[in-house]
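Supplementary Methods. Inverse-folding protocol.

Structures were first reduced to a discrete structure-token string of length 547. This string, shown here, constituted the complete conditioning input.
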């Protein structure tokens, strides 16, 4: 029978519940336990696919095409728990399902209410992850305890222990212990209040993980334990990490979290084995080289809007024992100030995915800069579409070539709507989504770095390269390095002869893991390192343009 861990958060949002949950998953897996991860989000959107990255950060896409919360990216980077549609539910989805059932008459005349109908629906999506091959289901509840929206979820996990047995459920509460400079003290009161709120709705947390910038002393731990009604050994410190989030699992292990979980849930499994992870941290701390990659996008001010891209760059750096410095360049700033000034210090330019017209010209200029100067370029999704448009305009001489997403009336629609999208009117969940196979052209850079002739990568787009322009662009030197297996959709374009000009219609960043860097990212960073070696002043130029 599967056991359950429920992770809640208190005091403030953005405490890193996703990372903490992922770390717990990793610690349990390191003992040989089989884990499934899940996030329940209290907002009303059916999924985050319709939300702006400014609101919600990156939309993380799974193989099965679900558009999910970016915390699932942490789950995939930290654990091997298979993730599917069932790994992320929102209030919107829960209500949608309850309302469908009501319309079908499944409630047989009952008054449909939050308790029990909505809470039953929530419990059923948690139960979906149980199985003979699953030791522990880890369910993270989004939001902060005390939010009106979270209440049905908290009520459902409270009831869960009644159904499954308290001995099979563990409640972990992540909280903040702020340091008050004026008082020179760590303050436990917000945590007491937050646990108080949980206890009011009938949940007594078993473990408190305390985010803090200073070490928690014995006295503080004892005080938290007493006021929050938990054993003192269940007060676990999680100090801010100034180096890397990849330190979190090791630090939680060192503070005894996994032993506590295993004891509480009476789990079997061997001793935790995190040697490979410690080795990874060691390599991260001791890079032998440095390289600067400019990410030119619309959402660079938002910390999490290109989360998986930043992570994948770090992983690729690790593969080369190099530290990747990312220069986050606003594409609109490129429009105002020109690419020379903003990109002169970059060893490589990455143009990520995106939507709409704003900032497009800056992306096109960034591509042109990289193409003309022989700076390695990596285009992803919209970035690939920009690479094609730029090439069409400035190499193939197709003046005013564009994507129809940006200019419906362009004389040269080199990027156009996918056929399957023509009848689509709803915005949510209707793009070409999820893992799709691609075949690679032998001898291309992509085939070389993948070491394969066929790959499957995750997609999220409505537009594609227009086949009507394929021949013309190829004649001018653009290489089609990857297509869908039927040859109909262009998946990768390259510029042979350029140090690295690879642009892909898919999102390779979603499949990169610290211990398994994604092949194209590794290839791109490798090329940027070569370009750095050839331009020893690159680093200094970066200092000059950094604010
Ligand atoms: N807006 C483009 C499209 O829909 C690119 C999407 C993306 O970059 N994810 O095709």
């Amino acid at each position: 029978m599967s056991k359950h861990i429920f992770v809640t958060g208190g005091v403030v949002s953005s405490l890193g519940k996703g990372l903490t949950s992922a770390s717990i998953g990793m610690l349990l897996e390191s003992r040989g336990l089989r884990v499934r991860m899940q996030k329940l989000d209290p907002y009303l959107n059916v999924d985050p696919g319709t939300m702006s990255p400014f609101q919600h950060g990156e939309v993380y896409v799974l193989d099965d095409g679900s558009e999910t919360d970016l915390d699932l990216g942490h789950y995939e980077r930290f654990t091997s728990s298979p993730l599917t549609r069932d790994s992320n539910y929102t209030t919107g989805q829960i209500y949608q399902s309850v309302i469908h059932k009501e319309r079908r008459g499944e409630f047989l005349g009952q008054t449909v209410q939050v308790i029990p109908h909505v809470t039953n629906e929530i419990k059923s999506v948690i139960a979906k992850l149980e199985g003979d091959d699953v030791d522990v289901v880890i369910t993270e509840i989004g939001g902060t305890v005390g939010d009106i929206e979270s209440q049905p979820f908290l009520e459902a996990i409270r009831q869960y222990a009644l159904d499954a047995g308290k001995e099979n459920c563990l409640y972990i509460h992540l909280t903040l212990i702020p340091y008050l400079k004026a008082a020179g003290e760590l303050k436990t009161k917000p945590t007491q209040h937050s646990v108080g709120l949980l206890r009011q709705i009938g949940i007594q947390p078993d473990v408190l993980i305390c985010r803090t910038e200073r070490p928690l002393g014995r006295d503080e731990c004892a005080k938290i334990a007493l006021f929050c009604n938990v054993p003192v050994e269940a007060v676990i410190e999680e100090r801010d990490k100034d180096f890397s989030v990849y330190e979190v699992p090791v630090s939680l292990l060192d503070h005894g979290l996994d032993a506590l979980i295993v004891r509480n849930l009476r789990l079997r499994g061997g001793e935790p084995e995190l040697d490979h992870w410690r080795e990874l941290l060691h390599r991260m701390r001791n890079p032998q080289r440095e390289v600067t990659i400019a990410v030119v996008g619309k959402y660079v001010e938002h910390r999490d809007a290109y989360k998986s891209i930043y992570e994948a760059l770090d992983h690729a750096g690790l593969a080369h024992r190099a530290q990747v410095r990312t220069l986050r360049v606003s594409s609109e700033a490129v429009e105002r100030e020109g690419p020379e000034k903003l990109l002169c210090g970059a060893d490589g330019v990455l143009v990520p995915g995106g939507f709409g017209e704003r900032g497009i010209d800056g992306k096109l200029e960034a591509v042109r800069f990289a193409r003309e100067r022989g700076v390695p370029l990596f285009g992803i999704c919209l970035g690939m579409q920009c690479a094609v448009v730029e090439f069409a305009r400035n190499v193939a001489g197709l003046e005013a070539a564009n994507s129809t997403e940006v200019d419906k009336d362009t004389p040269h629609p080199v990027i156009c709507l996918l056929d399957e999208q023509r009848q689509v009117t709803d915005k949510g969940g209707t793009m070409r989504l999820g893992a799709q196979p691609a075949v690679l052209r032998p001898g291309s850079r992509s085939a070389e770095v993948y070491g394969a002739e066929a790959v499957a990568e995750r997609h999220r787009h409505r537009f594609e390269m227009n086949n009507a322009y394929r021949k013309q662009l190829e004649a001018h030197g653009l290489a089609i390095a990857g297509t869908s297996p039927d040859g109909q959709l262009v998946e990768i374009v390259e510029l042979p002869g350029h140090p690295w000009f690879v642009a892909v219609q898919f999102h390779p960043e979603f499949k990169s893991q610290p211990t398994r860097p994604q092949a194209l990212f590794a290839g791109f960073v490798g090329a940027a390192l070569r370009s750095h070696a050839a331009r020893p002043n690159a680093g200094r130029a970066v200092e000059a343009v950094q604010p």
